[in-house]
Amino acid sequence: MGRPLPGVPVNLVDPVSGRRVDGPGEGEICLDLTGNEGGRPLSLMTGYQGDDGRNAEAMAGGFYHTGDVASRDEDGYITYIGRTDDVFKASDYKVSPFELESVLIEHPAVAEAAIVPAPDPVRLAVPKAYVVLAPGHEPTEETAASILRYAREHLPPYLRVRRLEFAELPKTISGKIRRVELRTREEQLADSRIEGEWRDDQFPDLKG
Which domains, and CATH codes, for the chain? Predict the structure, then answer.
């Protein structure tokens, strides 16, 4: 994403402690409202009309909370990771759906992909991909194995996609993927084997 523009007091704030992250690190992108960095940004809204509760949540702790998670390097460059409500933990590692999806759509068979946490008895949650296939590709075992293998080769072990299902993605009117529907489905079907779902333990060369 680059560096913040002049006059835009961007901070990274730890979403758990609420403390500002100084120097390189990771946190929620927030705008300082206290005047420590030149005052309230002129481009920022005054608030949600008629919704005091939402205002209080968005402006908590002297910051405007964007809901976007990012990392900052030694030179001050900011890299987008995902939304605070989309990032989840697998084996105690933070998983950004955006990062995994960016790798999956590089596979020629993948037109669209959405990553959500799937409950797991060992890791608590594992990354699962809902995939829309590109024209000319069929939802077969071979296609599933090829996509899982590609993800394995291009992602570190702790970000490995463990499950995959071919499906149409639920979307809002504006075209945004409704991950909340997919997460809810995973939670409801947590104790059952989902028909049409492929898991990495079904393919011997993908174990580990």
Answer: 10-83 (2.30.38.10), 88-206 (3.30.300.30)
